[in-house]
Every structure is written in C-alpha cells, then in structure tokens.
Design goal:
Number of strands: 19
Shape: globular
Low-confidence stretches: none
Helix content: under 10%
Strand order of the largest sheet: 1-2-3-4-8-6-5
Largest sheet: 7 strands, mixed, barrel
Radius of gyration: 23 Å
Strand content: over 45%
CATH class of the largest domain: Mainly Beta
Mean pLDDT: 93
CATH architecture of the largest domain: Beta Barrel
C-alpha cells in the first residue's frame, strides 16, 4: 500500500540513501511515499465453485516478486551536483546482472531485503522551472518476498534451541564443525537431515534448510546426503536442534517478516 514514510525512515541501495526526514534545503534524496515495504503480496490462483458461491479455499501462494516503489525528489545546490544525483538514480541497478541489498530503518527498527533488482518504471527527471530539484520514482523487484530484521546467534553446541520473533517462518543455515569420518545426523522435531560425507576438523559443513544444499568450506558440494527433511524456524516457537555426538552446531537466525 502506498504510504508516507514512517518515523525516521531511511533506505539505502548501493550508493544511494533515501531519507524520510523533513526537507531543510540540504542536498539529498527525500522520500514522499513508499510502497511495497511491509505487507505480503500473495498470488491468487482461485478455482471457481461451480453451481455454488465464490471459489474453493486455497492457501496463500507467494510466487510473484515483491515490488518496492520509493517516490520523492532529490535536491542539490549546483546544476552539476543535481545532474550527478539524477544520473546516479538513472544508473542504479541498471546493469544486466545488477543486484543489491536494500536496507531500511523505520520506527526504530532495522530491516533488509537481501536481493533486489531494478524494477520496471524507475525514472528521474528535472523539475520544470526548478533546476535544483529532480523528481524520481525508484522501483525495485525482490524475487523473495521475505524481509529480515534483527539477527541472533545460537551455538556452538551439540544441541541448540533456535527461535525468532518475526511474523513468518525463518530460513535456517546450520554450520557443523568437528571430526566424524562416518558423517552425522541433524535432528529437529520437524525433520531429520542425514549427512554421509565425512566431517573433518578445520573444514566446516553448512547445510541450508532453504535450499537443501550442503557446503564444505563455503563451497557447494554434490551428494553426501541421505535422508533429508527440510524445516524452517516458526515465529515465537523455540525448537531444539541436535547433532551427532562429536560435532558442534551453530547458526544465526533473523527475525523474518512477509
């Protein structure tokens, strides 16, 4: 929903910082409206109920990207400086493979979307009759609609209790260290992950519950897995994660929102 920026709003993408502060004739990018930050944007796949009323009930789907729009104006003191500000907006994430993290602060909290790309409809143009101003609409596309807040570390220990205080299920990447030539098993009330690849001292494993991929020394490896039952961390419901004796688990869980 399109809305004015909240208290203390500030957003950064690459080398551009957008501010919701009151305009005081100081150079910067000033925000007058924001859309797409907060509030999920579910897809709709309704099936009509023949000879009935309405449609069959269906779970929310999030197959579409999150579209974020930041509107406002830029201000600077010289024609050269305001021209640079306009060109910076024109070139923001304009490359074929360009992406960036979008970070923003609002109402005393910090959030981030880990991957955004340039969206359709971004524009910046000088205000007619006022050369110190450039009016802009900066639009971004986030393939994953989730956004993240405060992060909390857990471990290292053989058994850790993980939790977060967001509003939806949080992704989990577990780091495993130790020396177990025969592999190991990670257990949680919601599932089990059996790793058959040897765990060697100084060569930590990371298992990503979001993708089901195993990494060794930060490099994704093929195979090395047995039974895999993926799970995520529910909001406000601590859960115990354990690993085979001889190994240590650690992770960082971020408050996760839609």
């Amino acid at each position: 929903m399109r809305r004015p920026p909240g208290t203390g709003f500030e957003a950064t993408v690459r080398n551009v910082t957008f501010t919701g502060q009151r305009f005081r004739f100081e150079p910067g990018y000033y925000v007058t409206a924001v859309d797409g930050l907060g509030g999920a944007q579910p897809s709709h796949h309704g099936v009509p109920m023949l000879n009935g009323y309405g449609e069959f009930d269906a779970a929310n789907q999030y197959e579409d990207a999150r579209i974020i729009t930041i509107s406002g104006f830029a201000y600077d003191l010289t024609p050269e400086a305001i021209g640079r500000r306009r060109r910076r907006l024109d070139g923001l994430l304009a490359g074929r493979d360009d992406s960036a993290v979008l970070r923003w602060s609002e109402d005393g909290s910090d959030f981030r979307i880990p991957l955004v790309r340039r969206g359709v409809g971004s524009k910046a143009q000088r205000r007619v009759g006022a050369w110190r101003y450039v009016d802009f609409t900066a639009r971004f596309r986030a393939p994953d609609q989730r956004y993240f807040g405060q992060a909390e570390p857990f471990g290292p220990a053989q058994s850790i209790t993980v939790s977060h205080w967001g509003e939806t299920f949080a992704p989990l990447a577990l780091k495993v260290e130790g020396n177990l030539p025969g592999g190991y098993v990670i257990t949680h009330p919601a599932g089990v992950v059996q790793v058959t690849r040897a765990l060697e001292t100084g060569h930590p494993h990371t298992f990503d519950m979001d993708t089901g991929l195993l990494s060794v020394d930060g490099v994704i490896v093929a195979g090395g897995l047995g039974t895999v039952q993926l799970w995520e961390v529910p909001p406000g419901a601590p859960g115990q994660v354990s690993v085979t004796s001889g190994a240590l688990l650690s992770t960082v869980v971020e408050n996760t929102f839609m």
